[in-house]
Amino acid sequence: MTAFENLVDVVRKLRIECPWDKEQTHESLRYALIEEAYEVVESIDDKNLEELRKELGDLLLHVVYHSTIAEDNHEFTLPSVIQNATEKLIRRHPHVFGDVKVRGPEEVKENWEKIKLSEGRESIVEGVPRELPALLRAFRVQDKASKVGFDWEKKEDVWKKVEEELEELHHEAISGNREGTEEEFGDLLFAIVNYARFLEVNPEYALRRTVDKFIERFQYIETRLKEQGKDITKTSLEEMDKLWEEAKK
Q1: What is the pLDDT of residue 139?
Q2: What is the pLDDT of residues 133-192, one digit of tens each?
Q3: Rounded to an integer, what distance in angstroms lies between the CA atom of residue 118 and that of residue 152?
Q4: Contact at 8 Å (CB) between 193 and 135?
Q5: Diameter of the chain measured on Cα atoms
Q6: Cβ of 116: how many Cβ atoms within 10 Å?
Q7: Which of 84, 112, 137, 148 has its CA 20 to 30 A from that of 173?
Q8: What is this structure's pTM?
Q9: Which of 196, 207, 208 is nearest to 142 (CA)?
Q10: Environment class of residue 139 by beta-carbon count within 10 Å: exposed (0-12), middle (13-18) or buried (19+)?
Q11: CATH topology of domain 3-91
């Protein structure tokens, strides 16, 4: 018995004999699946290969688990999941499994989107999950649209759009129009994501790094104040700013 077959047998046994596992559904496990996927990403960002090995196992467990639930409900089977994935890879790589010629990775991505449409997709931007973080979702939608030529030609023009949206946001903010301000703020973020794409920067990763950096520096302030026996809630902004500059160094 292979390691994969053993995993499948364990999950099936749990579904029969464990009261908690018996009750689980696709819906009850959906957010745990998202969490596991993020933990995989975090281990990659941390370059922690041992943790990555563990988290990939947890993610694989969810694939097996959802497939087993589907089998119990007579919806689909695990072999059909695997077969579908295999067939999709072959179908979407005609330059490997067929006689199509490509000039590089970008053409591969363009062909991928065209093949998706030929498979029954009604829209190029279909299939970008609503559950994705908004910055990443915007990035993926823009990237998909660009594959059929709906894109800016020069990054300088994209930057002009950012400036335009910034001005419109400022105008709405001054006017006190809350709904208009929220809409323009969204437009500005969308334009910045577009600019990030032209700079070949993933906006989601960039913002995550900045948030991590902020947390690290702020925790430095907290630590230094504790060492001095001071209460952060009673510390002046000026003093915290000095410690912030220390943290940056």
Answers
A1: 95
A2: 899 999 999 998 988 889 999 999 999 999 999 999 999 999 999 999 999 999 999 999
A3: 26
A4: yes
A5: 72
A6: 19
A7: 137
A8: 0.71
A9: 196
A10: buried
A11: Helix Hairpins (1.10.287)
| Angstrom distance (rounded) from CA 219 to CA 198 | 34
> What is residue 98's DSSP assignment?
S
User: Whole-angstrom Cα distance, residue 129 to residue 131?
Assistant: 5
Tokens representing residue 49 in the block: 């290969």
Cα dihedral value 80, 82, 88, 93, nearest 10? -150
**Residue that is written with structure tokens 């409900």 in the block:** 73
Given this chain, do its domains 3-91 and 134-201 carry the same CATH topology? yes
Among the listed residues 56, 205, 183, 83, the one whose alpha carbon sits nearest the alpha carbon of residue 135: 205
Where do the domains of the chain lie?
3-91, 92-122, 134-201, 205-248
Query: Which token pair is 82?
Result: 């695997």
Q: Which residues contact 187 (CB under 8 A, 6 or more apart)?
A: 165, 168, 169
Give, in order, the Cα–Cα distances in Å from 210 to each of 50, 67, 206, 216, 246: 25, 38, 6, 10, 17
Closest CA to 224 of 174, 216, 80: 216
Contact predicate 26/66, CB 8 Å: yes
User: How big is the chain by its Cα radius of gyration, in Å?
Assistant: 24
> Distance between CA 144 and CA 142 in Å, rounded?
5
Res. 117: pLDDT tops 80: no
CATH number listed for the domain at residues 134-201:
1.10.287.1080
What distance in Å separates the CA atoms of residue 74 and residue 242, rounded to the nearest whole number? 64
pLDDT tens column, 45-87: 899 999 999 999 999 999 999 999 999 999 999 999 999 999 9
